[in-house]
Write a structure and sequence with these properties.
274 residues, alpha/beta, Rossmann fold, seven-stranded parallel β-sheet, 10 helices, 15% strand
Length: 274
């Protein structure tokens, strides 16, 4: 669908790794809706992924930036404003990483050096991104900044580990910075709490396939795909949502408000008959 929702708008998209990632899908949607943008990721992620293919497809420039490094971020925003010919209208923060999860450490046996690294990458980087934009006055009035979150910020999911803490802080940062950015510069800040999604990062979590099926059974509308999340993100970048800010918006087919569904209950009934 192409409605030119972002015609004339300029943006920065963090986190496009491969064609399964939500950020990748957001870039495709933003391009089709008329936006110009810069793609960015950490240097090591750029080497691992295939972002140059996306850049060619969307006629975009790739600028490497470590989202935990203020010097990199300041350079990213300064170069993006020059590259795109004006201030930024939208930013997507699609970044998350837990070394404890990668190393198989349980929540109750964390390596705290790993914990702090994951916190810096997954949560504090959201603040740093906005701090860089703020310091450089790089955002246009009524601009939109979106971070991707997950319901584990509010509820316990036993394999999500310290990433749950990171997402809780991410959402808090969106509220607090959203207040200051709104009052002073009319910029809105929100997070999207997305369904479990079959991305490269998501599918690497232990037991992901079982939980994906559980969430899909429980949600009245089923799990939202990466492509559907991208379309929703575009709506938050558009002028149709100019007064939506400081919100954590669930995009999960209704999963977040369910207790038990007929489909899920039937699975247990079938098991009990075996």
């Amino acid at each position: 669908m192409n409605n030119n929702l972002l015609k004339g708008k300029r943006g920065i998209i963090f986190g496009a790794l491969d064609n399964k990632s939500i950020a990748w899908k957001v870039a495709l949607h933003a391009h089709s809706e008329g936006a110009k943008f810069v793609l960015t990721n950490a240097p090591i992620a750029l080497r691992m992924g295939s972002i140059d293919q996306l850049a060619e497809e969307t006629n975009s420039r790739v600028i490497a930036a470590d989202a935990t490094n203020m010097e990199d971020l300041n350079n990213l925003f300064a170069e993006s404003v020059k590259e795109l010919g004006g201030k930024i209208d939208f930013v997507l923060h699609s970044i998350g990483m837990s070394v404890n999860v990668r190393k198989g450490n349980q929540y109750y046996e964390q390596n705290y050096d790993y914990t702090m690294k994951g916190f810096d990458v997954s949560a504090l980087s959201f603040h740093k991104v906005m701090q860089a934009a703020w310091d450089l006055d790089a955002m246009n009035e009524w601009g939109s900044i979106v971070g991707l979150s997950y319901i584990a910020a509010q509820r316990v999911f036993h394999t999500y580990n310290d990433m749950a803490d990171n997402k809780a802080v991410l959402e808090s940062i969106a509220r607090s910075f959203g207040y200051h950015y709104g009052v002073r510069r009319n910029v809105r800040v929100n997070t999207i709490s997305q369904s479990p999604t079959e991305t490269t990062a998501g599918s690497g979590v232990k037991g992901f396939d079982i939980f994906y099926r559980f969430a899909d059974d429980l949600a009245p509308l089923g799990n939202a795909s990466a492509d559907e999340c991208a379309a929703y993100t575009i709506s938050l970048f558009s002028d149709y949502t100019k007064k939506v800010t400081m919100q954590n918006l669930f995009h999960d087919g209704g999963f977040s408000y369910m207790g038990m569904s007929e489909e899920t209950m039937s699975n247990y009934l079938n098991d009990s008959k075996k």
